[in-house]
Specification:
Length: 269
């Protein structure tokens, strides 16, 4: 029997998903407004001192009107992208060689795995000792934050390449360089892009830690300075700036990566 049900147009599906996500954000903000204005206290969690969205909006508007906003954004964007680019170059390079060589994996991966769980804040004293410039110390913290997601995703991407593809290319007369460029890299690219996207988000995650060192400008410094003077609405403003810019940067990295991989279609899309 022929079904009378018409398929849902793709545009309508995209619009529905977008509206659902917007509604989810609105619901979260509404719950936040209600809990903060009612001074909800359930013992485990209390909103008695949490600023309301309206208070945060006023603080955000004051920051937007301030001439310091440009300096804060410029400083933070430079530190995050400088650390991210260095992490991308080193992480992808190391990931590719470790994923292809068992000997290099045995030599390089153990010390990297020891360093990986160390939180960014624990690197502050050593970063100050290692780098004569506080700016380089802050870039290093964001670099450390971005490095390991990129490195591990690259290694997993290379190790997950179907061995039959490599064997087929070799049987057709391809050399090691051709196999690497035409088989390994395209097959591992989706995992590499995922690592880059996560690494970008982690670099922004480490921003407050980085700018605790001696920053005079930066969104992370603004957030930390607001905490030290107990200006609660400005703390939330700084957090939201980092969250929104970090999310946008991660989405941008993912979009660029997907545009460079026309052969790859994510599952479920």
């Amino acid at each position: 029997m022929r079904s009378n049900t018409l398929p849902t147009p793709p545009n309508w599906q995209s619009t529905s998903r977008f509206l659902l996500r917007v509604a989810s954000l609105i619901a979260c903000v509404a719950a936040w407004q209600w809990a903060s204005t009612q001074r909800i206290d359930i013992g485990i969690v209390t909103f008695q001192n949490v600023p309301s969205p309206t208070d945060v909006l006023d603080a955000a508007w004051s920051l937007v009107q301030s001439p310091k906003l440009g300096a804060h954004l410029k400083a933070s964007v430079y530190r995050v992208f400088a650390g991210f680019i260095a992490a991308a170059v080193i992480g992808i390079g190391l990931g590719l060689v470790i994923g292809r060589s068992r000997w290099l994996e045995d030599v390089l991966l153990p010390p990297l795995e020891v360093l990986r769980p160390i939180p960014a804040v624990a690197w502050i004293p050593l970063a100050i000792l290692m780098f004569p410039s506080s700016e380089m110390s802050m870039v290093y913290i964001t670099f450390i934050g971005a490095l390991f997601p990129i490195l591990l995703n690259t290694i997993h991407g290379v190790e997950g390449v179907d061995r039959r593809l490599v064997a087929s290319a070799r049987s057709l007369g391809s050399g090691s360089v051709a196999i690497f460029i035409e088989v390994i890299l395209p097959a591992a690219a989706p995992s590499i892009v995922t690592g880059l996207s996560i690494g970008m988000g982690t670099a922004w995650f480490c921003l407050v830690t980085a700018e605790m060192i001696s920053g005079q400008f930066g969104i992370g410094y603004y957030t930390w300075a607001s905490y030290t003077i107990q200006n609660y609405p400005e703390i939330v403003v700084g957090m939201l700036f980092i969250g929104v810019i970090g999310m946008g940067s991660s989405v941008l990295v993912r979009k660029i990566g997907n545009a460079l991989m026309p052969w790859y279609q994510p599952k479920g899309k």
